[in-house]
Amino acid sequence: MRNGFIMKVLAINGSPHMDEGNTAMILNPFLEGMKETGSDVEVFYTRKLKIGACNGDMSCWFVNPGTCGQKDDMQMLLPKIKDADVIVWASPVYYHGITGPMKNVMDRQLPLHLLGTQMKPQKAVLVSTCSAWELSMFDSILLQMKTIYMRPDGSSYFAGALLRPMADGVKEMIKAGETGLVEGVFRAAREAGRQLAIEGMISVELQKQVSRELMPRDAYYKAAQMMMEQAQKAMKK
Ligand SMILES: Cc1cc2nc3c(=O)[nH]c(=O)nc-3n(C[C@H](O)[C@H](O)[C@H](O)COP(=O)(O)O)c2cc1C
């Protein structure tokens, strides 16, 4: 709750795997945590949306200020982005960045930039997963999000990031019944949702719990290599 009002949360999941994906494994408990506080949560999947790339003609600034010339699902999404108290960008890492469809949504927000200080204060959260063991794999996405949302006039800010490296390994650990450590990750994601709704930020401690080390680097890459070889053998059969 924010000052007794229900927070409006808009989450955009940019994974093509939607609710079956690694990103949803972290996003969904986080959103559950927010719902537990009474927040009004809406989730959209880029895979289900028809949102083209920005054509860069700047007509939303200079021809019809505030209106995009393209008629697609962004017409429905733009007012929701404008209205949200919290926007959650959830994407797997693709080549050190967000997925292509997610970038389209991000770019197509341009008409809102004209509103400047008329935009209500907004908090942004990044949820991301990747295959690599190293947390540094998220550096470029994190920098992008922080730079976008840390507006100097304070009208928006970056409230935290739930980053899960070694996400493919997490799925394998669950399959193998090694759920002890992994459950701690999901609990922390849920708690982060509650905390954001109540306190307005996600603590560094909870962010660290979501990203916590689940196995040594060498062991992870060895297991990943073995799985890759097995998959290649299966393909040849
Ligand atoms: C096209 C593509 C590019 C990827 N690039 C990276 C990458 O740069 N670094 C990385 O660690 N994982 C990379 N991955 C792996 C995904 O980030 C990882 O499997 C993620 O958890 C998938 O999330 P999802 O199941 O929600 O789609 C890539 C996967 C694909 C399909």
Describe the structure concisely:
The protein is an alpha/beta fold.
Word description of this protein:
The protein is of the alpha/beta class and 237 residues long. The chain has one domain: Rossmann fold. Strands 2-1-3-4-5 form a five-stranded parallel β-sheet, sandwiched between helices. Strand 4, helix 6 and strand 5 form a beta-alpha-beta unit. Helix 1 crosses helix 8 and helix 8 packs antiparallel against helix 9. The N and C termini lie far apart (56 Å). The model has no long low-confidence stretch (mean pLDDT 93).
CATH topology: Rossmann fold
What general form does the structure show? globular
Using the CA coordinates, give the radius of gyration: 19 Å
CATH superfamily: Flavodoxin domain
Bound molecules: flavin mononucleotide
Topology, element by element:
Blueprint: E1 8-13, H1 22-36, E2 40-45, H2 59-62, H3 74-83, E3 86-92, H4 100-107, H5 110-113, E4 122-129, H6 139-149, E5 156-164, H7 167-175, H8 180-199, H9 204-211, H10 217-236
Parallel strand pairs: 1-2, 1-3, 3-4, 4-5
The protein binds flavin mononucleotide.
Brief descriptors of the model:
single chain; 237 residues; alpha/beta; Rossmann fold; 5-stranded parallel sheet; globular; binds flavin mononucleotide
